[in-house]
Specification:
By secondary structure, this protein is an alpha/beta fold. The chain contains 13 helices and 9 strands. The chain has 2 domains: about 150 residues, Rossmann fold; about 140 residues, Rossmann fold (3-Layer(aba) Sandwich). Bound molecules: phosphoric acid mono(formamide)ester and norvaline (NVA). Norvaline binds next to helix 6.
Amino acid sequence: MRHLISLFDLQQSELQTILSLGEQIKTLLERGVRPPLLARQVLAMLFEKPSLRTRVSFEAGICQLGGTAMFLGQEVGWKSRETTADFIRVLAQYTDFVVCRAKLHSSVQELASFDRVPIINGLTDLSHPCQALADLMTMRQSGPDLAGRQVTFVGDGNNVSRSLALASAMNGMKFRLLGPREYFMTDSELQQISQRYPNADMLQSEQPEEVLAGADFVYTDVWTSMGQEAESERRKRDFAPFQVNEKLMRHAASDCKVLHCLPAKRGEEITDEVIDSGHSMVVEQAGNRMHAQKGLLIWLALQHGQLSAADLAAEGIQLS
Ligand code: CP
Ligand code: NVA
């Protein structure tokens, strides 16, 4: 059974197929066409942390494809009322996919380990693969071939930047991280990517001039992720020199695009001038969450025999 716990679960060609499916579905939606490819399929959404984009884009996405979604918050008692084994073996009988936002990455891995229903990581402390799918789709909007282009993430080695680093390696992009050294991705995290993708071009720096000059995209995220609230004051002090503002952006090319996974803390990691500038793609980026995840759901349905290439062809969608 296929799951998406991390982008390491995908081959490069599979990632391209998911993005292509999402892009074709997006084009159809823009023409007012909503093919019912996942008719009567059910998506469970198991969330331990708050969400706007992930929750609503998955629910809207599967509804537009003819399926339905159900939100499962604390009251279902995951980890409190019964064992995870009992929980997921039961849930798998009612549903076709589960998207899970968990405090701990190991919790999502544990759900997948039972192999009863495809599990999708909707963000953990370690990674955010669905965000990376939308990030790639957004960057492809300014030219489909990402190879050789550079994304500079300003912030810490967190769930979003780890997934972006891996997504960059899978697409031949240069990945740069700008921030305080003590918040860099670890050597072992970088090595894990390099082992799988030996040509991965990754560099972390505290010097804006070193990593912003060649950037096609500058990306940032909150300084304090969900669950790190106790470190908030220290992080505000440590990251203050790395605020993405007009002065910092002077190190980048004038046509450099700006990305942010949102939600943003305006006035902290990014200023209004930059996030609202003509170079900002953040609103489309959030919109692409839904399109990219539709690509993912369709691809998972194909893997599990719930959908065929002929079903797609009947709607004018090609499998690349
Ligand atoms: N970017 C993102 O995952 O947003 P939410 O936390 O609102 O889902
Ligand atoms: N790094 C942030 C991303 C939110 C989408 C967090 O984990 O809170």
